[in-house]
Amino acid sequence: MRLIKFAGILLLVWAAAGWHASAQSWDSSGNGLLKGTYYFREVFYAIGYNDGSLAEASALYGSITFSGTGAYTCQVSLIDSNAGLESGTLSGTYSIAASGYGFISNPLSNGDYIYGLVNSTGIFVGSTTETTAGFNDLLIAAPLASPAPTAGAFKGTYTIAGIDLSSGSPSTTLGYLLQINPDGVSALGTVSGVAYAGSAGSTKYPQSFTGSKYIASSGAMVVTFPNSTSNVVTGQKYVYISPDGNFIFGGSPQGFDMFVGVRNGSGASFGGLYYQAGLDQDESQLVSADFANLDTYYGSFSAGGNTIVGHQRLFSPFNGSAYDYTYADGYSTPSSSGSYGTTFMNYVVGAGGVRIGSGIGPSLGINVALPAPSFTGSGVYLNPAGIVNAASSAPFTAGVAPGELLTLYGTNLADSTVIASEIPFPTSLGNVQVMINGMAAPIYYVAPTQVSVIVPYEITSAIVQVQVVTDGNQSNTVTEYLSSTSAGVFSVPPGGLGNGAVLHQDGSLVSAANPAQANETVSVFLTGLGSVNPGISDGAAGPVSTLSQSVATITAYIGGVQGTVTYAGLAPQLAGLYQVNVTVPSGLTSGENNLDIAGPDSYTSEVAISVGGSAMVDPTAQAKSARARRPPPRIGKALVRPDRLSGLPKQ
User: Fold this and answer.
1) Could you tell me the pTM of the whole model?
2) Is the domain of 9 the same as that of 102?
3) Across all residues in the chain, what is the average pLDDT?
4) Last residue of some domain: 481, 503, 534?
5) Using alpha carbons only, how large is the chain's radius of gyration in Å?
6) Quick one: average pLDDT of 72-96?
7) How many domains does the chain have?
8) Who contacts 34 (Cβ-Cβ below 8 Å, separation ≥6)?
């Protein structure tokens, strides 16, 4: 049967911007990471109203077979809010890099791609962030174990986090975090936990019920939850299980929900590099402003020492286009049950280190984070996930910008440690060269496991290929995406955490003992602001007589309040460094405030700035500052699509 291509408003024609103009150049050496038969589920949402209500929703689910060489076929069912239920066969292509980062052609949207990552156990998570069609989606796919799981494989204690937008209205969006106890035969035991509903804000709805049953069908579990007005989860759900049994996901065959889950294990470990994806619906303004904001994303983060440095490639229709969001967040050591919480999300770390997250109302959403593969190689070896922002340590999925100072990690990258002693920085240092799209890049520092290099301003293609050449020996090539900006603020001490590298006008460092004051203009030092005008030679110092200003418009927020940027461009007399002069807004509390920098396609929220004074803070601004997950919106409330289609199913 012919499948309707996301009926109604999403009859799509490829019109996306830069990222896939060079799709054929993407590294496909990791295609073998996706091979064999998988189960998958993808949910689609199209906003049609100012309040964030859906004009259309779909869920695509079934089996998908990856060739291991870049092609797939899938047997699917499609439930669409405007077209009902259909089934059929679809096919497409994919390209996965050695890091596991890549894209799958979207089965329901011709010319669009689902960007994402494959983790150490072959699970793919991703989202179609680069689309002009204005829809959000989230896809999860996991290998089907062989032999196929039976009811006996579904046993133990699991925690599931879910979100249900089937009603089409933010007011009745449901979010939940539940514990289930499948017995390996047919029953889930007591289901317990907590739920939230959109219009109810932070009100908790405790959940506790029995009578849920399941059967095994072709390697999936078909769960039936009892119908009750007090239960947030009712009716039939399909549950897909990873081969090791540590991760589950799925949703309703008749609805537009998605849940993720982990098998609980004592002493679950959490740390290292993770690949992530998720979906958020921020309903904090639903009551006061009749407005909710939906976004979907994929990315990565590094966790350690109770601190996370992360990246999300995020798309929200109300922001108009995708952008790179880099952030720092704290976390407490998971309890014996693997759980910990932040202001906006409860997390559970399960067996195998898989982490799931469930939003706390009014910030509904789900997150799944999967341990990344380990990378090793012989000879001159560049870590496929080892290209990061030199200032912020933002992970490799954040992309790179012209003029950005990068840190490259690997092994045998240099014979010894050498620091450039002259400006402009040389393109060969300690018998090391770094080739970016075949162009020798200026180098600041080399060591056996680390190289610091500047992206040439001449790089303009959507795809960036990086290679290290040491003593004439070439490393593997690592592929990245090019952005116009990839802002990262230097910190004191270095690493991208704590206080930003910010100076008063007298040259002294802004600190807790020497804080910035309201209406004072301070200088922030960073990298990744992209092209400048007038241009300079690669590796040269910023000019003094005629300042080189950023071509992109740069904005700054302190404590969630936008400050006035009086200059954004290269730091005079310094190489590889940008400077933003910003006037500290009034109305902030004294103490540490988030310092965020935004470009047209990047937003970084990692460092803090000390602010003096005792004025009371605007509660709205403080809430924004405290929330590491979401930057202040750069485009306000707006109707994204004119479509006003009816026929959405009722909750």
Assistant:
1) 0.92
2) yes
3) 90
4) 481
5) 25
6) 96
7) 3
8) 66, 68, 72, 94, 96, 118, 122, 124
Distance CA 54, CA 56 (A): 5
Determine how many CB atoms are found less than 10 A away from the CB of residue 379: 11
Q: Examine residue 633 and state whether it is found in any structural domain, yes or no.
A: no
Same domain, 348 and 322: yes
230: exposed, middle or buried (Cβ count in 10 Å: 0-12, 13-18, 19+) = exposed
| Residues 463 and 347 grouped into a single domain | no
For 155-188, what is each residue's pLDDT tens digit? 999 999 999 999 999 999 999 999 999 999 999 9
What is the extent of the structural domain holding 460?
A: 381-481
pLDDT higher than threshold 70 for residue 240: yes
Task: Return the number of other C-beta atoms located less than 10 Å from residue 472's C-beta.
Answer: 8
C-alpha pair distances (Å), 7 with each of 46, 63, 291, 303, 604: 11, 21, 26, 41, 36
Find residue 263's DSSP bridge partners.
158
Is residue 260 included in any domain, yes or no? yes
Amino acid at 163: I
Question: What per-residue confidence (pLDDT) applies to 267?
Answer: 61
543: helix, strand or coil: coil
Q: Are residues 275 and 342 in the same domain?
A: yes
CA separation (Å) from 451 to 407, 454, 577?
A: 6, 10, 16
The reply to whether 91 and 240 lie within a common domain is yes
Q: How far is CA 18 from CA 12, 324, 406, 464, 616, in A?
A: 17, 14, 22, 12, 44
pLDDT attached to residue 321: 86
pLDDT at 640 over 70: no
User: Does residue 636 sit within a domain?
Assistant: no
**Can you give the CATH number for the domain in which 546 is found?**
2.60.40.10
Q: For residue 203, how many other CB atoms are within 10 A of its CB?
A: 11
- Cβ distance 529 to 403 under 8 Å? yes
Same domain, 365 and 406: no
What the block records as the tokens of 7 is 């009926």
Question: For residue 335, what are the CA distances in angstroms to 228, 231, 306, 350, 554?
Answer: 32, 27, 13, 11, 41
Query: SS3 of 465, please?
Result: strand
The token pair that represents 276 in the structure block = 């992530």
> How far apart, in whole angstroms, are the C-alpha atoms of residue 425 and residue 197?
56
Q: Are residues 370 and 386 in the same domain?
A: no
What's the token pair of residue 223?
């769960």
- In whole angstroms, give the CA distance from residue 607 to residue 609: 7
**Would residue 486 be called left, alpha or beta, if left means φ above 0 and alpha means ψ between -120 and 50 degrees?**
beta
Q: How far apart are CA 49 and CA 639, in angstroms?
A: 6
Give a three-class secondary structure readout of 60-85: EEEEEEEECCCEEEEEEEEEECCCEE
346 and 237: one domain?
yes
Residue-level pLDDT at 336: 83
Domain-ending residue, one of 374, 402, 419: 374
The amino acid at residue 218 is S
Residue 648 lies in a domain: no
